[in-house]
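SEQUENCE AND FOLD
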Amino acid sequence: MTYQEALILVKSEFETLRESSHNEIVLTGLTYDGSCGFCVSLYDQDGKAIITDLGETKEVFDEVEKETWQALCEERGFRFNHWRIERDFNALDDVHAFIQFLDELSDRFFTLGDDD
């Protein structure tokens, strides 16, 4: 699906924030850790729409090893590409799956590094 087609679909259900001519942030109202908001971005990659976190998830959970990210993404039908979580956009269900995946990652990794 083209980026413009995907953008119309996404905007039918979500508020977005234009970051650039090839990138629109999907506003979810959810956070990784209570303060850092989920990064869900609809991105134009050579005319094709993808959903990506722009590498923000690994910045929040920087103690997680690359191999762990790769395995988790692969298990759930995502790619871990240059430290970014990605998925091709084919339907709104892809956005919902992406948000759910970020939520699951947050539940899993939020307590890492806690000294308590």
